[in-house]
Design goal:
The protein is mostly beta strands. It contains seven helices and 35 strands. The protein has a domain at 12-306: Pectate Lyase C-like (3 Solenoid), CATH 2.160.20.10. It has a 19-stranded parallel β-sheet that branches. Strands 19-23-25-27-29-33 form a six-stranded parallel β-sheet, with no helix packed on it. A four-stranded parallel β-sheet has the order 4-8-12-15. The protein is globular and about 70 Å long. GO terms for molecular function: polygalacturonase activity.
Length: 558
């Protein structure tokens, strides 16, 4: 791939993956077509004058919703107008079973910037901070929906960098400025709208099934981009997630001093930021499949200010009472299972995460052909399983095969002390395989060698001893030796500790560090060396020569 190529094309081996044959989504037939009546400006945004009056904050909402309601099946297709109009402006929309929203190529669906449009009755004020974040509806919601989705080669833009027009901070702060208050105000949670939320009225009996995101671009979400919670059957294929887009920043994210959100020191209540970087767009996770089964995430490009993908399993009444089995007794319910994350590229981001919420258990996760480029961002993370005793639970049968990472400080983390929060949800992580993992040193990067961290820390607190078990490292190679994170925090033990690691049969480039930790008495830290010496001398690191490609959009600031 040449430096100027933003096509996002995939190598033939990825495109011909036999595991994905026949699984690419098919766009449904059109039920209704709606032409655009608004036009984007030269920056790819809407002029503020269009919706400066809060009474005109969502001019297209009613006609889009009416079209959705009128369709029993098929797609509501948003297309360009006859005179080149290419934008829609809407507040919250509700999808129903059998109906898909199709945003055509060249068309953008923009989100209202009025918190009042998203307000949930009798909840915290949308567009403000509070002790919880329950105040806002999502832009697009599907509840108890079967066979619905969002597709097309157009864009859905949450306008996170736009100044909001109603509420406490009307005409003063942007959505992302409100999010930044969570960094400067103790105990604050942002009440900002998500972009797409799929959920169920009754979490004990999930009824949402088979939701599809296909080829759509999601960008500039005020908060999370896509959260399917309690869904059986989720497909995310060929999607781009970009936050912030170039319309809200400058090339290279080289924002002038004083133009970005305030994330430390005294909170900002009076100044609208005008330039944004990924690390100043807080809680803008790209894809967060929570409490969901049969999930496929394939061929996606993700660049955002928080987790690229975060698998979570939390707070569902379905996991409170285990299944009673006639022969085996009580069996736990795994609210997350059969998750496949294949052929994906992450830029910036907090990486590929499992957790932190795992208290309803996670099993059977396959992650293959994953590229992560942290771009030397201070927050950039690679592969991470993170939890703690406030939201911990069982995580098992997770495999990584074919991982390329560069320019990310937290390269490889399995940590049951993600925070110092207390509780009785004890983490239990076991049967994790990391194969064909290659951390690539990069010229002029600040994260090469021992500036890169590996954390391996199981759980031993509160009278519970739950070490990491059967953690297999096979052809796990760093171009130069990383550091084993060893910092203790209060009562939290140092890392590495409470873990049983198996190396081999392929090489493990930091084997000497692991073995030295055993020799130096790391608490309950065991290493089984199954490396095949002849194979180690012959086996090359996993090939990452074609892994790192440009984000496939001219709207990227990179």
């Amino acid at each position: 791939m040449t430096p100027a190529d933003r096509s996002g094309s995939w190598p033939a081996a990825a495109l011909n993956d036999p595991e994905l044959v026949g699984k690419e989504p098919v766009i449904p037939t059109v039920c209704q077509t709606l032409p655009a009546e608004l036009t984007q400006n030269a920056k790819g945004l809407l002029d503020d004058a269009i919706d400066a009056d809060p009474d005109n904050s969502q001019p297209d909402a009613s006609r889009i919703q009416a079209a959705i309601n009128a369709c029993s099946s098929g797609a509501v297709k948003l297309i360009a107008g006859s005179n080149g109009e290419n934008a829609f402006l809407s507040g919250p929309l509700t999808l129903k079973s059998g109906v898909t929203l199709w945003v055509d190529q060249g068309v953008t669906l923009f989100a209202s910037r009025s918190p009042a449009d998203y307000q949930i009755a009798d909840k915290n004020n949308c567009g403000e901070t509070a002790s919880s974040d329950n105040g806002c509806n999502a832009l697009i919601t599907a509840t108890d929906a079967v066979n619905s989705g969002v597709v097309g080669e157009g864009i859905i833009d949450g306008r996170g960098g736009a100044v909001i027009t109603t509420g406490k901070y009307a005409n003063t702060l942007t959505w992302w400025d409100v999010g930044a208050l969570t960094k400067t105000v103790s105990g604050a949670n942002q009440n900002n709208p998500r972009l797409i939320q799929v959920t169920n009225k009754n979490s004990a009996k999930p009824t949402s099934k088979n939701f599809t995101l296909y080829k759509i671009t999601l960008q500039n979400a005020p908060k999370f981009h896509f959260v399917p919670s309690g869904v059986n059957g989720v497909t995310v294929w060929g999607v781009k997630v970009l936050t912030p887009s170039l319309a809200y920043t400058v090339p290279g994210y080289d924002c002038p001093e004083g133009t970005t959100p305030t994330t430390s020191g005294s909170p900002n209540y009076t100044r609208a930021s005008t330039c944004f970087t990924p690390d100043t767009t807080k809680n803008t996770d790209a894809i967060d499949p929570g409490q969901s089964q049969n999930v496929l995430i394939a061929y996606n490009h993700i660049s955002t200010g928080d987790d690229g993908v975060a698998i979570k399993s939390h707070n569902s009444s379905a996991c409170v009472a285990p299944i009673a089995d006639k022969y085996l007794g009580l069996l736990p319910i795994y609210t997350v299972s059969n998750v496949k994350i294949l052929h994906n590229r992450l830029y910036f981001t907090h990486g590929m995460s499992i957790g932190s919420e795992t208290d309803c258990a996670i099993k059977d996760v396959e992650i293959r052909d994953l590229t992560i480029d942290g771009h030397d961002a201070a927050f950039a993370v690679g592969v991470r399983i993170k939890t703690d005793m406030s939201v911990g639970g069982e995580v098992k049968n997770v495999s990584y095969d074919g991982v390329c990472i560069r320019r990310a400080q937290e390269a490889l983390t399995i940590d049951t002390y993600y925070s110092s929060k207390t509780g009785q949800a004890y983490p239990d992580i076991h049967d994790i395989t990391i194969k064909n993992y290659h951390y690539v040193d990069t010229a002029n990067s600040i994260y090469n060698g021992d500036n890169v961290r590996v954390t391996l820390r199981g759980f031993s607190s509160d009278g519970q001893d739950l070490p990491l078990k059967n953690i297999v490292l096979n052809n796990t190679v760093f171009d130069s030796a990383p550091q084993l994170a060893n910092k203790a925090l209060g009562k939290i033990p140092a890392s590495p500790s409470y873990a049983q690691i198996t190396m081999g049969p392929g090489p493990v480039s930091f084997a000497s560090l692991l073995l030295a930790a055993v020799e130096n008495g790391a608490p309950e830290f065991e290493v089984l060396d199954n490396r095949d010496a002849p194979a180690e001398s012959a086996e090359a690191p996993y090939d990452c020569s074609q892994a790192f490609a440009l984000f496939p959009s001219a709207a990227s600031a990179l």
